[in-house]
C-alpha cells in the first residue's frame, strides 16, 4: 500500500493498541493506514540506544521537547514526560514487559464489592483474546493459585526466580504467603525468531529483542502486507466530521508543521489514555462544541493509574541486587479479597534493586580512592525493597483536559492531568505497607523505612480510563465494541477505554481488546456493514 491509496481503516497511534489491531486487520485483507507521531527506531540501533540509556539519557526521546509537554494540577504531582514514547512501537519500546491478566472480579467491582464500576464485558469474553495476545507477544509464565482460570498454557515456561526473590519467598512462606512467577513478554527460550533473555539488565532498551515490543512482533506484518502502511513522524492534530456526524478525515502534520489530511471509512484512535482524549477535545466542531464524541462530558474523565508504595530495609547477607532489571515473582494473595469493598487490593512485588548502584553510592559518599572502594565493597547489595501497586478507583476529579496556557510543538493546548487519591486508596497503601513490613521482618531485615524515595507514593506509568466503555451513552464514551456512541465510524482502542484498572499492568489487556475489536470489524466487513 502507498500514500494516497484508498484507506478502509485509519489508526492513530502505532503502540500496542494500534499495531496489534493493524496487524490483525491487514491479515484479514483490510486496507490499513497507521499514523504515528514519532519515528522508527531500527533494531540495528539498539546497541547505540542501550549506551545512551546507560549514560542516563532517555533513549527513546527523538523529537523536540515541545512534543512532550504536559502539566499537572492535582494534589499529587503527575509527570507525564518519560512515561510514554512517541515512536513506532509506542510505550512497548520502553515498557518493563510484565503481562499479567486482569482477574475475573476486576470486571465486576460494583456488583461484587459496591465500589468502582462494572465493565460491559467480562473475563470469560476476553479470555480467548488473552490467549491469542500471549501467543503473539510471546509470554513466559507459570502457575498462580490466585489467578483466574486459563484455557491454554503460557507459550513459554517462566523466567527463573532471581537470587533475592528466592530468599524472600522462603521468608514469606513463614507467614503463609505464596509467590508466583510474573508473566512477562520476555522470552525464557528462543521464540518466533527472537532471542532468549540474557539478563542484560537494560530492559528499557532490550538490545537482543528478547523482550517483546510491537515494532518487532506486529509492525512487520503491516509493513510486509500489500494492504498496510505505517507512516511515522506524523502527528494527528484533529479529526474532522461530515454528514451524519461521521469522521471524514484526519488532519495531520510532520515536523514541518504543514497540515495534510487522509480520508477513510473507519477511524480508530489508539494513542493512549492521555493523547486519545486530548485529540478528541481538540476536535471541536459545530455539532461537537465540547470535543468529538463528548456529549456525555466524560472524555478525559476518570483517569486512573497505579499508585505504588514500598519499603526499604537492610539485610546482613549480600542480596545480589541490580543484576537484572525485571521482577521475576509476585504475591497476588491480596489482589482480590473481601477487604476490597473497603480498601484497594494490592499485590506484593520484589524489585531487583533500589537504584542504589555503586555509581549512586560513589556520587553521594564524598569518598575517594581505596576508601571509596572499601565503602562500596562493604555496603553495596545490603539494601532491598518491596513494592505494591495500588488501584485507583474511577472518579470524575481525576482527569485529562487541555491546559489553557501551555502549548505543544504545533501550537495546540498541551494535556493537563489531575490526579488524587482518597480514603479507599490510602487504606490500601496502609495495608500494603503493613504486609511489606511483616515480610521484611520475617526475612531478618532491619532499618525498615520508606527509604530514599520517601513516604509519598509514586506511579507505575499505567495511564488508563478517560474514554471508558459502557452500554449507556450518557455514562460512557464507547460501547462494548469500542465504537463511539455518538460518531458511527469512530472507534477507540487501548487503555483509555478501561473502566477499572485492577492491579494488572495494562498492556496484555490492551492487546486482547485490540484483537477483539479486529474480530468485530472483520465480522462487520463480512456482513457488508461499517
Sheet having the most strands: 5 strands, parallel
Mean pLDDT: 94
- Low-pLDDT runs of 5+ residues are none
Number of helices: 12
- Gap between N and C termini, in Å? 21 Å
Gross morphology is: globular
Strand sequence of the main sheet, in spatial order? 5-2-1-9-18
Instruction: Work out the radius of gyration.
Output: 23 Å
What is the percent of helical residues? 25-40%
Number of strands: 18
Strand content: 15-25%
SS-derived structural category: alpha/beta
Q: What is this structure's SSE topology?
A:
Layout: E1 9-12, H1 16-27, E2 32-35, H2 46-54, E3 71-72, H3 109-113, H4 123-137, H5 163-173, E4 180-181, H6 214-217, H7 219-224, E5 228-231, E6 235-241, E7 247-253, E8 259-263, E9 266-269, H8 272-282, E10 306-314, E11 329-331, E12 348-349, H9 358-365, H10 369-379, E13 383-391, E14 399-407, E15 413-418, H11 423-442, E16 446-449, E17 458-459, E18 490-492, H12 507-527
Parallel strand pairs: 1-2, 1-9, 2-5, 3-15, 9-18
Antiparallel strand pairs: 4-11, 6-7, 7-8, 10-13, 10-16, 10-17, 11-12, 14-15
Helix pairs in contact: 1-12, 4-12
Amino acid at each position: 500500500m502507498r500514500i494516497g491509496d484508498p484507506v478502509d481503516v485509519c489508526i492513530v497511534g502505532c503502540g500496542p493498541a494500534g499495531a496489534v489491531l493493524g496487524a490483525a486487520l491487514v491479515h484479514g485483507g483490510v486496507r490499513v493506514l497507521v499514523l504515528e507521531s514519532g519515528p522508527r527506531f531500527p533494531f540495528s540501533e539498539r546497541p547505540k540506544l542501550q549506551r545512551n540509556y546507560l549514560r542516563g539519557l532517555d533513549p527513546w526521546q527523538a523529537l523536540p521537547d515541545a512534543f512532550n509537554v504536559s502539566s499537572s494540577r492535582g494534589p499529587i504531582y503527575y509527570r507525564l514526560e518519560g512515561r510514554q514514547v512517541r515512536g513506532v512501537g509506542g510505550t512497548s519500546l520502553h515498557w518493563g514487559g510484565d503481562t499479567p491478566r486482569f482477574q475475573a472480579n476486576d470486571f465486576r467491582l460494583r456488583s461484587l464489592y459496591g465500589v468502582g464500576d462494572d465493565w460491559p464485558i467480562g473475563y470469560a469474553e476476553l479470555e480467548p483474546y488473552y490467549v491469542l495476545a500471549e501467543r503473539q507477544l510471546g509470554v513466559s509464565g507459570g502457575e498462580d493459585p490466585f489467578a483466574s482460570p486459563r484455557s491454554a498454557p503460557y507459550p513459554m515456561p517462566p523466567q527463573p526466580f532471581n537470587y533475592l526473590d528466592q530468599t524472600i519467598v522462603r521468608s514469606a512462606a513463614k507467614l503463609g504467603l505464596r509467590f508466583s512467577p510474573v508473566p512477562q513478554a520476555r522470552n525464557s527460550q528462543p521464540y518466533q525468531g527472537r532471542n532468549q533473555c540474557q539478563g542484560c539488565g537494560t530492559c528499557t532498551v532490550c538490545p537482543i529483542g528478547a523482550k517483546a515490543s510491537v515494532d518487532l512482533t506486529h509492525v512487520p506484518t503491516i509493513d510486509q502486507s500489500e494492504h498496510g502502511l505505517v507512516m511515522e513522524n506524523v502527528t494527528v492534530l484533529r479529526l474532522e466530521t461530515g454528514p451524519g456526524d461521521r469522521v471524514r478525515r484526519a488532519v495531520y502534520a510532520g515536523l514541518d508543521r504543514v497540515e495534510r489530511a487522509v480520508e477513510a471509512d473507519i477511524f480508530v484512535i489508539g494513542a493512549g489514555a492521555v493523547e486519545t482524549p486530548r485529540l478528541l477535545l481538540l476536535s471541536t466542531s459545530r455539532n461537537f462544541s465540547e470535543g468529538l464524541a463528548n456529549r456525555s462530558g466524560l472524555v478525559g474523565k476518570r483517569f486512573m493509574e497505579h499508585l505504588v508504595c514500598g519499603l526499604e530495609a537492610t539485610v546482613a547477607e549480600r542480596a545480589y541486587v541490580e543484576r537484572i532489571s525485571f521482577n521475576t515473582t509476585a504475591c497476588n494473595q491480596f489482589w482480590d479479597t473481601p477487604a476490597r469493598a473497603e480498601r484497594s487490593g494490592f499485590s506484593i512485588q520484589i524489585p531487583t534493586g533500589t537504584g542504589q548502584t555503586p555509581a549512586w553510592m560513589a556520587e553521594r559518599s564524598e569518598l575517594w580512592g581505596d576508601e571509596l572502594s572499601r565503602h562500596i565493597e562493604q555496603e553495596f547489595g545490603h539494601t532491598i525493597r518491596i513494592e505494591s501497586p495500588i488501584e485507583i478507583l474511577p472518579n470524575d476529579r481525576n482527569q485529562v483536559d487541555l491546559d489553557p496556557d501551555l502549548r505543544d510543538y504545533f501550537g495546540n493546548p498541551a494535556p493537563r492531568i489531575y490526579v488524587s487519591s482518597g480514603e479507599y486508596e490510602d487504606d490500601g497503601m496502609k495495608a500494603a505497607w503493613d504486609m511489606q513490613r511483616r515480610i521484611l521482618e520475617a526475612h531478618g531485615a532491619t532499618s525498615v523505612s520508606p527509604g530514599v524515595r520517601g513516604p509519598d507514593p509514586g506511579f507505575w506509568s499505567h495511564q488508563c480510563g478517560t474514554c471508558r466503555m459502557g452500554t449507556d451513552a450518557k455514562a460512557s464514551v464507547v460501547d462494548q465494541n469500542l465504537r463511539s456512541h455518538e460518531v458511527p465510524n469512530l472507534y477507540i482502542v487501548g487503555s483509555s477505554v478501561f473502566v477499572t484498572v485492577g492491579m494488572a499492568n495494562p498492556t496484555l489487556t490492551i492487546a486482547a481488546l485490540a484483537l477483539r475489536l479486529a474480530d468485530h470489524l472483520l465480522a462487520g466487513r463480512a456482513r457488508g456493514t461499517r
